[in-house]
């Protein structure tokens, strides 16, 4: 069945109803019963039509096969292999949790965000996970590199070289749409900094693996995220860690998938503090970046640019809603002159309007934080939906309240960030920084990568 926007002859997308009727896959559970493994009833990972954020970017049959690995089935397969006597098949299981997932667990189980984090960590370790991290440190890198890139683009922008506006690249649904549908010249405006998920993959498979004296293939890395497009992001060949060729993320599970496993489990759970990449024994407080419901690229890049380019210190950022509640702008003015003009465009209605104006040369902004989901990452379709596939507005409102109460941490204040720049990346301006923290983008022309996708 084709989606209503699809113009291609072949399309493997199905409606959620079709898949629910035809797909029901048993997934091995770590719970023992009668000497054999029990099974959770969870479907294989699929991108449903109603979940798809990258309009017209069809999921082919070949990619659908790859997506089946992005499920609880593959996660539990590794858990079960670790229980076998053959130690050569054992892998160190690492789970990294996105900060936008924690409010979902807090609201779902009526806990504070700290208790929800400890409950989630305790549950994952009761399954057999060895380490549980949060991805805030990876978002620190993503934001800092985006700050530097914007300042560089600002200085380079001219009549001949159109380096602005810079469009954020942390949302995989938006990036996928830009790559596979829009292409050049839109992709030239995409920030080259990798997303927090991609950076976290490099941290776990390279930095952490070397700290543990492990080859990267011995580490199985799982991301817990609010949206389905993170599964597609994990498959992209270009997002392998630059130094060892291993895929940074082996499996992505949405917050909703993890919640299903928790609800179906009868394991005894002991609340446990989240681990750190540095082996710190002290539990770190849960913090977030200054964003409406995201990792806060707009707010942090705006403050940095104001200070770096114009010597202006910005404490509070005022968002002004324009045509709808998902399109905001932020400006820096001095003596009646607009120095910086930033915007946040959430949802594909706003994205399409933005692209139309950009192509006509009538887009006035220097920087745009682009997210595919209306109301941002908290509204990811992997956690904020009702059983019939609609947004759970009551749950989402509760999650937004929980998220807003988490203390904000500027990325520059991270205790270990500069240490990682020096020890892991050989300095803030080294060639390694470019290799590990930045990427390039594909055109919408047919690609021939290891997924063998025919677009």
TrEMBL record:
Instruction: List where this protein forms a coiled coil.
Output: none
Q: Where is the Iron hydrogenase small subunit domain?
A: 389-445
Quote the InterPro entries the UniProt record gives: Cytosolic_Fe-S_CAF (IPR050340), Fe_hydrogenase (IPR009016), Fe_hydrogenase_lsu_C (IPR004108), Fe_hydrogenase_ssu (IPR003149)
Question: What domain of life is recorded for the organism?
Answer: Eukaryota
List localization entries: Nucleus
Family membership noted in the UniProt record: Belongs to the NARF family.
Name under which the protein is recorded:
Nuclear prelamin A recognition factor
- Gene it is expressed from: Narf
């Amino acid at each position: 069945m084709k989606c209503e926007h699809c113009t291609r002859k072949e399309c493997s997308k199905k409606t959620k109803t079709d898949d629910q009727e035809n797909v029901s896959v048993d997934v091995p559970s770590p719970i023992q019963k009668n000497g054999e493994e029990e099974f959770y009833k969870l479907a294989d990972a699929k991108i449903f039509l109603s979940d798809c954020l990258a309009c017209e970017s069809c999921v082919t049959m070949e990619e659908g096969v790859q997506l089946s690995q992005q499920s609880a089935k593959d996660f539990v397969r590794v858990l079960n292999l670790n229980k076998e006597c053959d130690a050569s098949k054992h892998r160190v299981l690492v789970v990294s949790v996105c900060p936008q997932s924690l409010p979902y667990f807090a609201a779902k189980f009526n806990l504070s965000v700290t208790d929800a984090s400890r409950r989630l960590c305790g549950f994952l370790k009761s399954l057999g996970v060895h380490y549980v991290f949060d991805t805030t440190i990876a978002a620190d890198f993503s934001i800092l590199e985006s700050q530097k890139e914007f300042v560089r683009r600002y200085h380079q922008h001219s009549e001949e070289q159109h380096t602005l506006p810079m469009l954020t690249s942390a949302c995989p649904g938006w990036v996928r749409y830009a790559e596979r549908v829009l292409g050049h010249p839109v992709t030239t405006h995409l920030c080259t900094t990798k997303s927090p998920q991609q950076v976290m993959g490099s941290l776990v498979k390279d930095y952490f693996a070397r700290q543990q004296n492990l080859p990267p293939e011995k580490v199985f890395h799982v991301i817990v995220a609010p949206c389905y497009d993170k599964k597609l992001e994990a498959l992209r060949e270009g997002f392998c860690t630059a130094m060892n060729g291993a895929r940074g993320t082996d499996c992505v599970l949405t917050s909703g998938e993890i919640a299903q496993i928790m609800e179906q489990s009868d394991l005894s759970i002991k609340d446990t503090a989240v681990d750190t990449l540095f082996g710190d024994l002290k539990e770190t407080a849960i913090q977030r970046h200054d964003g409406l419901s995201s990792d806060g690229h707009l707010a942090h890049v705006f403050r940095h640019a104001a200070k770096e380019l114009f010597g202006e210190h910005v404490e509070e950022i005022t968002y002004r809603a324009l045509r709808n509640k998902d399109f905001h702008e932020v400006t820096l003015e001095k003596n009646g002159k607009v120095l910086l003009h930033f915007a946040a465009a959430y949802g594909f209605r706003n994205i399409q309007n933005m692209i139309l104006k950009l192509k006509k040369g009538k887009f006035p902004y220097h920087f745009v934080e682009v997210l595919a989901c209306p109301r941002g990452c908290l509204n990811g379709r992997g956690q904020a939906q009702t059983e019939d596939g609609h947004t759970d507005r009551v749950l989402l409102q509760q999650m937004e309240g929980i998220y807003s109460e988490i203390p904000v941490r500027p990325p520059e204040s991270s205790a270990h960030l500069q240490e990682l720049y020096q020890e892991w990346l050989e300095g803030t301006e080294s060639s390694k920084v470019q290799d590990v923290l930045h990427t390039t983008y594909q055109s919408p022309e047919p690609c021939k990568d290891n997924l063998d996708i025919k677009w």
